[in-house]
Amino acid sequence: MVRNDQPLLDVRGLSVAFRTRGHEQLSAVQELSVSIDPGGSLALVGESGSGKSVSMRALLGLLPANAVVGGSARWSGEGDVPGGTELIGLAPRAFRAIRGRQIGMVFQNAMQALNPTIPLKRQLTEHLRWHGSCTRAEAEVRAVRALGDVGIPDPERRIRMYPFQLSGGMRQRAMIAMAMVADPRLLIADEPTTAVDVTVQKQILDLLIDLRDRGTAIIMVTHDLGVARYLCEDVAVLYSGQVMESARLVDAVEDPRHPYTRGLIGSALELGDDSPLRPIGGNPPDLADRPAGCAFQPRCTAADGERCAEVQPLVRLADAREVRCWRSSHE
Ligand SMILES: Nc1ncnc2c1ncn2[C@@H]1O[C@H](COP(=O)(O)OP(=O)(O)O)[C@@H](O)[C@H]1O
Ligand SMILES: [Mg+2]
User: How remote is the CA of residue 17 from the centroid of ligand 1, in Å?
Assistant: First the structure.
C-alpha cells in the first residue's frame, strides 16, 4: 500500500568516487541528497560532467563495484520488495526485481540501451516475463500496447523489427516504451531528448508529461533548465558533483539563489527575458583539481574573495529550499 507521506525514493549523502591510475580517487559526486514523492517530478540539472549520469547509475546499481563510497538511497518498495529497501549495495539479484520493473530507465543514446541484435519484442517482454509474472502472450499484448502508447504507428508490425530498422525518433520512443512496459512507479530519464531533433524532442517531452499526468514519478536528467521547466516540479542543480541549489523549479527559475543557477538560466533558451544568451564563462573544474571552498567560485561573478574560496555554506531557506552559497538570502 502506498503511503503518501513517505518519499518514493530518498537519497541521502550519496558520494561516488572513481579510482584511476595516477590519482588516489576522483570524487565525481559528493553528498548528493534528493528525494521524490510518489507521482512527483524532479529535474537534475547541470552542465556536462557535473555528475548527473553517475548519480543515477549509482542509484540503479550500474557503477563499477566500490564506486559508491557513501550515502543511502531508500526505495519505498512494492509487492515482494519491502518498503525502505536500501539500493546502495543491493545484491544484483534483488535489483532485478526493482530495475526495469519498479524503476524504469531511459538513457540518452537509444542505440546503446537497446540491443541491436535482438528484436524489439524480446527486449520489451523481458522485464514482464521475469519471474514468470506473466505469460508470453500477455507480455506480447502489453508490449504492443506500450509501443502504441508512445505513439509508434502500427506497433504489431514494428514490434518484430530490430532497433536498427527504426528511425532515431522511433528508437527513442521504443526505449521509453521499454522503460514503461512494466508500469514502473518511477521513471529515470537521462537526457532523453539530447540526441534527437527538435520536433522529436517536443514529442518526447509531451510523452513524458503525459506519463507524469498519469501518476508516474519522473526524474529528468538534463543540462537544459528550459527543458526541465516543461516537466518538473522540483529541481536539484548539480555542479562538479554537488547540489548547489535544490528548490521548487518555478522558484529556482523566477528567483535563483545560487549564481550557478542564475548562470544556467542566462544560458538557456526560452528562459527569462528576451535578452541574448549569456553563457557562463570558463569551464567546470577538473575532478582531480577541484578548488577549495565553493567549486563554482573561480567562475562566479558574485564571488567575494576569501570567504567563498575557503568555506562553502549550506543555507536552508523556507519551503525546504537549500542553497550552497553565502549570498543565497539576498543579504
Ligand atoms: N567510470 C568512470 N571512471 C572515471 N571517471 C568517470 C567514470 N564515469 C564518469 N566519470 C567522470 O565523472 C564525472 C561525471 O560524469 P557524468 O555523471 O557522466 O556527467 P553528466 O553530468 O554529464 O552526466 C565526469 O568528470 C566523468 O568524466
Ligand atoms: Mg550524462
Answer: 10
d(CA 329, CA 232): 24
Q: Give the number of other CB atoms < 10 A from CB of residue 6.
A: 15
User: Which of 21, 24, 48, 54 is the pocket-test mutation for ligand 1 (most atoms within 8 Å of CB)?
Assistant: 54
Checking if the pLDDT of 2 tops 50, the result is: no
Question: Measured between alpha carbons, how far is residue 123 from residues 53, 81, 115, 120, 183 in Å?
Answer: 23, 23, 8, 5, 15
> Residues lining ligand 1, CB < 6 A?
18, 20, 26, 28, 46, 48-54, 287
Question: Residue with the nearest Cα to atom 19 of ligand 1?
Answer: 49
**In angstroms, rounded to a whole number, what is the distance separating the alpha carbons of residues 94 and 61?**
11
Q: Report the predicted TM-score, pTM, of the whole model to 2 decimal places.
A: 0.92
CA of 148 to the centre of ligand 2 (A): 28
pLDDT band for position 47 (cuts 50, 70, 90): very high
| pLDDT at position 277 | 77
